[in-house]
Specification:
Strands 1-2 form a two-stranded antiparallel ribbon. The chain has one domain. Helix content is 41%, strand content 10%. It is elongated and about 45 Å long. By secondary structure, the protein is α+β, with helices and mostly antiparallel strands. It starts with 5 loop residues before the first strand and ends with a helix. Bound molecules: zinc ion. The site of zinc ion (ZN) has 8 residues, from helix 1. Zinc ion (ZN) binds next to helix 1.
Length: 58
Amino acid sequence: MPKEEEQVCCICDKKFKGYGNNPEPIKSEGRCCDECNETVVIKARIEKIMDSWIEEGA
Ligand SMILES: [Zn+2]
């Protein structure tokens, strides 16, 4: 796959270039842009980890 191939973000529907990012746990398939990765996906992952800690401690 060429590095500069244009893709559509599965979260914000904006076009972006490059490989994109894994959108889990927001979406189970597709790729998301760097912006969504930083603002939405990483946050959701942290929240998910925090939830699992809370469950373990209960
Ligand atoms: Zn996006």
